[in-house]
Design brief:
The chain is built from five helices and five strands, in the order E-H-E-H-E-H-E-H-E-H. The protein is an alpha/beta fold. A five-stranded parallel β-sheet has the order 2-1-3-4-5, sandwiched between helices. Strand 1, helix 1 and strand 2 form a beta-alpha-beta unit. Helix 2 runs parallel beside helix 3.
């Protein structure tokens, strides 16, 4: 079963996403900030991460940088930024930092689920090809 970690400091958004994911048959994990998210990443190794950028304690950019620098074994986990930051510069910064995708709020659940479906297909293909990460 695919496990997805949702990291967002806005509880209502996080709960909405987690409910949608669970209804679609995914196992879910939740964190309210990047620091909690990093702890769950290290402990549970989810298959996909959905992450807000602007959060207390550790923001999304700091989280992905920490993973890339200190935990390269986790750097192949698909990371989808979901944020209210809609300008092109922030989008490019997120993608350049290593995010697999970048979606803006307000959330469109159909688009999010399509992006997740693409990540799942790539994960399954990698596993079938013996490239499990």
């Amino acid at each position: 079963m695919i496990t997805i970690l949702c990291i967002d400091d806005e509880a209502d958004i996080r709960e909405l996403i987690v409910e949608e994911l669970a209804d679609a048959g995914f196992a879910t994990l939740e964190a309210a900030n990047g620091r909690e998210g990093l702890e769950l990443l290290l402990a549970k190794w989810p298959d996909i991460v959905i992450c807000d950028i602007t959060m207390p304690e550790m923001d999304g950019h700091q989280l992905i940088a920490t993973i890339q620098l200190n935990h390269p074994e986790l750097s192949n986990i698909p990371f989808i930024f979901l944020t209210a930051m809609t300008d092109k510069e922030n989008m490019l910064a997120g993608l350049r930092a290593g995010a697999a995708d970048y979606l803006t709020k307000p959330i469109d659940l159909d688009i999010l689920m399509a992006k997740i479906s693409g990540c799942v297909t790539r994960l399954e293909n990698d596993r079938l090809a013996g490239r499990a990460f």
